[in-house]
Amino acid sequence: MAEIRVQVCHPLPQAPQLRDLTLNEGSTVRDAVVASGLLPQFDPDHCPVGIFGKKKAPETVLRDGDRVEIYRPLVADPKDARRRRAVKKERAA
């Protein structure tokens, strides 16, 4: 069976984790995350994942050269953060 090379990235704040893997052709995002060992208790229902910055389902079939990304929960809602910055900027002006 043919093989593909992929990278799995888990961007932790203190130290991003990267793993280069060689998997069988037809492997999925879930297969890559499990094989990486970055999340021993990988739960695809509570851990969003993507490929090159685009959210994907864990069942998505990988292609050679893909970078699988394991996303962390957002600390703050981006819209709220923008509003707070705008208010802060108005007060400073």
Short summary:
The protein has helices spanning 29-36, 78-92, and strands at 3-10, 17-24, 49-51, 54-56, 67-70. The protein is of the alpha+beta class.
Report mean pLDDT, rounded to a whole number. Answer: 88
Profile the largest sheet. 5 strands, mixed
**CATH fold type:** Ubiquitin-like (UB roll)
CATH H level, superfamily name: Beta-grasp domain
**Can you identify the CATH class?**
Alpha Beta
Structure commentary:
The protein has 93 residues and is α+β, with helices and mostly antiparallel strands. The chain has a single domain, classed as Beta-grasp domain (Ubiquitin-like (UB roll)). Helix content is 25%, strand content 28%. It has two helices and five strands, in the order E-E-H-E-E-E-H. The chain has helices spanning 29-36, 78-92; strands at residues 3-10, 17-24, 49-51, 54-56, 67-70.
Task: Name a few traits of the molecule.
5-stranded mixed sheet; 28% strand; elongated; Ubiquitin-like (UB roll); alpha+beta
Furnish the topology, listing elements before pairings.
Blueprint: E1 3-10, E2 17-24, H1 29-36, E3 49-51, E4 54-56, E5 67-70, H2 78-92
